[in-house]
Amino acid sequence: MINVEDLRVTFHLPRRTVEAVRGVSFTVEPGECVAIVGESGSGKSVTARSLVGLAGPGARVDATRLEVDGQDARRFAPRDWRRLRGGFAGLVLQDALVSLDPLRTVGAEIGEVLRVHGQGSRLSRTKQVHRLLTEVHVPEPERRAKQYPHQLSGGLRQRALIASALAGGPKLLIADEPTTALDATVQAQILTLLAERRAAGETLLLISHDLAVVSRLADRILVMKDGRLVESGPSRVLLTGADHPYTRELIAAATGRRRARTAQPGPEPVVIAEAAALRKVYGDRTVVRDVGLSIRHGEIVGLVGESGSGKTTVAQLLFGLVEPTSGSVTFEGARFSGVPERARRPLRRKLQFIAQDPLSAFDPRWTVRRIVAEALPRGATVTPLLERVGLGEDVLDRYPRQLSGGQRQRVAIARALAPRPSLIICDEPVSALDVSVQAQVLDLLAEIRERDGTALLFISHDLGVIRDLADRVLVMHDGRVVEEGDVAAVFDRPGHEYTRKLLDAVPKLEVPA
Amino acid sequence: MTRAILRRVGAGVLVLWAAATAAYLALLAAPGDTVDAIIGDGADSPLIRSQIIQEWHLDRPAVVQYVDFLARAVQGDLGRSYLLQRPVAEVIGGQLGPTLQLAATAAGFGIVLALVLAVVARRPWVRRLSSTTELVLVSTPPFLIGIVLLSLFSFRLGWFPVSGAQGAAALVLPAITMGLPIAGTLAQVLRDGLDRALDEPFAVTARARGLRESAVLVRHALKHALLPTVTMLGWSFGVLIGGTVIIEQVFGRPGLGQVTVQAVNASDLPVVLAVVILAAAVFVVVNTLTDLAYLVIDPRLRRS
User: Fold this and answer.
1) Contact A469, A300 (CB under 8 A)
2) Chain A residue numbers touching B220 (CB-CB < 8 A)
3) Could you tell me if residue B287 is inside a domain?
4) Does one domain contain both A427 and A415?
5) A68 - beta bridge partners?
6) What percent of chain A has a predicted confidence (pLDDT) above 70?
7) What is the tens place of the pLDDT at every residue in A429-475?
8) Which of A191, A378, B183, B285 is buried deepest, with most CB atoms within 10 A?
């Protein structure tokens, strides 16, 4: 169905050329599920998109063989590609909120494929759209078809996107990170849907950064790094006996590991921050209901929940960015809520924050030196602090844009550490990072706690990360803390039904028999 | 949705009220007696003075004067020009037609030209050429464009009349003069919006459905690019109204611009006040329409 030999994709940009794919060969047979796994910049997406002629603007695609649907695609004119797109191959991208046109109804988006390929009249197309939505298990298809993407939940949106890719009845479904933007339970549902398509005989090409996500579905796995294939083979072989160290690293990241903890909290741990009976109401929506928590010196507390569970609001309440409707926050023994900002300001240095995407948390026109120096007492030097977070002097005069994701997050950590805080609130600090970089940043955070006794409130939707790092965990659902306790206890013997559901939904590395 | 519309219309009414009040206060603050200010350079006689006192209720308490002024303004009664010996509404009403005609034609021409420049001219070198031209158009003062067009097409070639507002031919040059800078601005914003939209993931999805590039542009990207363009268009309408003052002078056209210039020169305060209120009304209407156009274009804004 697909036969590629020595595929090379080069981007000729105004000032430089980027070799995104450097000689990749693979095949996809009918009815098979092939997965390409790699981190950002590995060339996996470009490889997949080259198969439908959408490598991107300024891309030059070369190959000794590029067979798509039995035809030599190297000599394709634009109209040949167009016939193939939607008809032979459907493409599902990451986030349906931006991958479906936000200004058009879901039904119009799905119907467009039918219209382009000249299928049916307007009326029969509406029926087809409803049938397709039903096929991907969207309830009330008639109503949903008339809605806009932002009016649907993340899961329904993604299903609608898949329906639009399936509309042309393609032989091949290319899914590029189809579940990355989704919560764990929704991700599990979408993976089930894809498994269903596969069982029905659909050929799948899956692209993902997460081995665990594809392990359940893929017959064969290709591992890409820096535009090259480092390893490939049947899933079973690859997952049990990987040769390449990079593949082993990805497997380790997907299985998760537990960090050894040496420093235990002292005999009488000091409570640094405490929240009691927190409640926050916006209009007629209660987003936080009766949340209480305390964080002790040197403790890492994980706060887990899906999007909309209220975990970010809790962080904002603790941080004093938002006033609680009722309840109180105490920090370092002083009242921190319901007081004027003037009263909070002297304590601010002791309470720091690390955001998910540091790129938007830095002034883009400031160098690393200036970013970190601003947080330090006057006259203190930046270099030792950068060394602490594993960065050299070479980054001092660079701008945030010129750093990699991991380096940026290290700068964010250095900035947070600069005023010697007693508590750092981290909101999804590793969610935007590649798995191998994630591990390094988590190691760094664990080490900081060990050495300085800095307490961390670690907010994440990723249970694996929490399990890796936290001592205690709070599970939030619908604005409430539904379960709380020692990480090992909660993960091994979840008491609440929701926690169990959450744990079950986490994709595990499954080795097919 | 209904609430969002009502809120915007309500805000518009509020702005109008503020503009009318500001105009009224300006009248009170004018140097000398209010009666003197209203007479301006017009004929002065005890009879006219008593007429003015009666019309503006200057013998009644200030509150009554103000409320009566508002009440009359709401009914479209903008007072009387004692200089021209005619009701203000009539003075303005007679000149509104040519100005609206000019503004609408200029805006229409600007929009069409902008669409052509941004949507059709997308090949790299055409794009560079049109982008440079737009920049020149935006930075040239309109009266200069007007003079160049006049000397070329009217004086030398004799294709269009030199002045007046007789027939469609007289509309061509002034409309082009005012439309060109608008086209330049709109085209820049539109092109930028299209480029951004074409880079979005939904454009990739649309291409992956087998759409032609032109269909991706028209069916998907254009609507996204319209959002900032509509804002720009609302703003350029304000520029249009201000621009007529100069353009009507250059082309010797009758219209609101001429009326304004004459009224200011002759200190005909009732007419000046009416022009201020009318200009505010145009702004309010245009901005409200812009906001409502947003709601039509972007469903995400329809919430709350």
Assistant:
1) yes
2) 101, 104
3) no
4) no
5) A2, A71
6) 97
7) 888 788 778 888 888 888 888 888 899 999 998 888 888 889 999 99
8) B183
Asked if A58 is an interface residue toward chain B (Cβ–Cβ < 8 A), one would say no
Say which amino acid occupies A236: R
Q: Which residue among B209, B213, B219 places its CB closest to the CB of A113?
A: B209
- Residues of chain A contacting residue B208, judged by C-beta atoms under 8 Å apart: 52, 54, 85-86, 89-91, 165
| Cβ <8 Å between B202 and A100 | yes
Nearest to A98 among B200, B212, B213 (CB): B200
* Of the residues A169, A199, A233, the one at which a domain ends: A169
Average pLDDT over residues B279-284: 87
Contacts of B209 in chain A (CB under 8 A): 85-86, 112-113, 116, 164, 167-168
Residues of A in contact with B215 (CB under 8 A): 116
CA dist A222 and A30 (Å) reads 17
Domain co-membership, B107 together with B238: yes
- The residues, ordered by sequence, that sit 6+ positions from B230 with a Cβ below 8 Å of its Cβ are B290, B293, B294, B297
Q: What token pair was written down for A183?
A: 């919560």
pLDDT in tens, A360-382: 889 999 999 999 999 998 888 89
Same structural domain for residues B102 and B72?
no
Q: Which of A420, A448, A463 is the last residue of a domain?
A: A420
CA atoms within 13 A on the CB side of A154: 18
For residue A322, give Cα distances in angstroms to A92, A288, A326, A329, A340.
Answer: 38, 12, 12, 11, 12
Of A107-111, A179-183, A229-233, A360-364, least confident by mean pLDDT is A179-183
Shared-domain flag, residues B38 and B123: no
In a domain? residue A117: yes
Phi, psi of A13 (to 5 degrees): -95, 165
Does residue A260 register a pLDDT over 60?
Answer: no
Strand-pairing partners, residue A279, are A326
- Sign of torsion over alpha carbons B76, B82, B83, B86: positive
Q: How many domains does chain B have?
A: 2
Asked if the structure places residue B217 within a domain, the reply is yes
Helix spans in A273-378 (H): 311-319, 341-348, 358-361, 368-375
Q: What is the DSSP string of A177-211?
A: STTTTS-HHHHHHHHHHHHHHHHTT-EEEEEES-H
Query: Is pLDDT above 70 for A263?
Result: no
Q: And the tokens for B294?
A: 């947003």
Confidence of residue A9 (pLDDT cuts 50, 70, 90): very high
Tell me which amino acid residue A57 is.
P
Domain hosting residue A370, numbered range: 364-420
What is the domain count for chain A? Answer: 3
Cβ neighbourhood burial of A122 (10 Å; 0-12, 13-18, 19+): exposed
Does A332 have pLDDT greater than 80? yes
> Which range marks the domain in which residue B133 is found?
96-265
Q: What residues contact residue A269 under an 8 Å CB cut-off, 6+ apart?
A: A296, A297, A298, A299
Q: Which residues pair with A301 in a beta bridge?
A: A457, A472
The answer to whether B205 contacts A113, with C-beta atoms less than 8 Å apart, is: no
